[in-house]
Amino acid sequence: MASTIITIVLFAYFGLLLLIAYLTSRNTTTKSFFTGDKKSRWYLVAFGMIGTSLSGVTFISVPGGVFDGGWYYYQMVIGFFLGYFVVAFVLLPIYYKYNLTSIYRYLEHRLGFSAYQWGAGYFILSRTLGATVRLYLVINVLQLFVFDSIGIPFWLSSVIIIAMIIAYTLQGGVKTIVWTDTLQTIFMLLALVVCIFAIQSELNWSWSHIWGQLEKTNMTKLWSTDYLRKDFFLKHIIGGAFITIAMTGLDQEMMQKNISVKSLKDAQKNMVVFSFVLLLVNALFLFLGGILYLYANQQGLNFKPDDVFPTIVQQHLPLGIFIIFIVGLISALFPSVDGAITALTSSFCIDILGFERSQSLNEKQQLRIRKITHLSFALLFLLLVFYFKWMDNKSIVDLIFLIAGYTYGPLLGLFAFGILTKRKLKNLMVPFVCIASPLICYALQTNSTSLLNGYAFGHELLLLNGSITFTLLYLTSKRSAEAIKHNV
Asked: Which of 23, 138, 157, 386 could connect to 333 by a Cys-Cys bridge, CB 3.0–4.6 Å?
């Protein structure tokens, strides 16, 4: 009975998304699919970006991570917060100055075609892997708690969810996603708050008593002061800042919605408001993790970190709370996948196929190619979800940031080189540098404890990768004609 009710709720929720897609995608052209006709409202983008940034990984893994690391994750959230100001006041002005549809065209303007295509290529690789890891995590949870009970196998539930996402993103693109992300963020935050109050009610403790118990059990520990550890606070703060710069500011999915806002001033307003709200929302997720820990101790329960939240909600809370949890989980899933598929479609069509460079394709031809590309990425997502299921990797948060460290590092180095220097690249050397940097990082990370007296790389790996890319680009580049003229 419970599974039937949940299934009905999920399809009703999907029907609402389809209705929004229908209303927002009328008269959509290829250009408006990519840019939203530059008419997106900044406050909707800001609110919707909360759901996109957090995703199902935050919804499931961050509360579970409190069991092992307390509030150490918040060190990185502080780094995220600082990084958003760099995005708002350094990167966004560049994107608006060049009136970009794909942010990687900046690399073409500044560094040449080879840097442009390698930058876009690394985004496509990183976003494809990162989004499918997030998708796998949420489908796995839904499979365990919903689909298994009604006899739907994992492969079929994956196909159904991918088909749902295709149905409401194929036509409208950014115009649709700005609105659906807003709706989904509302449901996700509603589920978060409802679950916190529901668990507090089950504990039957006052809020002050709960906080006292969290402090007593070290669940509120925030600062890690051992510099050899991966979670040392400076590593987390610096790494978090550069993760934001790379995974938000240099990411077509995140920036595609920002540059769909009419003016730079509104886009910056969106980013600043969003950064403050994210501090509060992440604190709520960590607080949720703490009270989940207290409840598990009270009941003598023992689960793997990623299983804590869904298992307690399903087995120990009323059915209505579990339904709200499932809606919140779906709401956390869709924004991190629908935007990824749309952004990947945009980047591939513009950066790889050259929609903006070619004059030979008319609107009808571009529409056909765009839809084929969109469906192809959806199929690739499905195949990668099957692969992650086969691998059965449980360290989802670590895996996502590890992927980011290796794939966004060259992007960070390319953009930094373009912004901070006036030198010109030798096109033939760009592929060598973009391949060599991650390989050097891999060698250093693998052997760091033996080479560096026990030092373990954490999230600062991204900064290291970007720095190596920047250095190699500098060493293999040449001074520009303007620099030579002014003897710079």
From this structure: 138
Distances (CA, A) of 15 to 3, 20, 130: 18, 9, 27
For the residues of 57-87, what is the DSSP string, one character each? HHHHHHHHHHHHHTTTHHHHHHHHHHHHHHI
Under 8 Å between Cβ of 359 and 339: no
Which of 70, 69, 54, 73 lies closest to 281, judged by CA? 54
Complete domains list, the chain, with CATH = 2-422 (1.20.1730.10)
Q: Distance of CA 403 to CAs 60, 78, 125, 250, 447, Å? A: 19, 21, 9, 15, 18
At 54-112, the pLDDT tens digits run 766 677 777 777 766 677 788 888 998 999 999 999 999 999 888 888 889 999 989 99
Measured distance CA(118)–CA(429) in Å, rounded: 11
pLDDT at 231: 65
Per the CB < 8 A criterion, the answer to whether 292 and 309 are in contact is: yes
Q: What are phi and psi of 241, to 5 degrees?
A: -60, -45
C-alpha 214 chain-centroid distance: 29
Collect all residues with Cβ–Cβ distance below 8 Å to 112 and sequence separation of at least 6: 424, 425, 427, 430
> What whole-number distance in Å separates Cα of residue 209 and Cα of residue 211?
5
Q: Which residues contact 27 (CB under 8 A, 6 or more apart)?
A: none
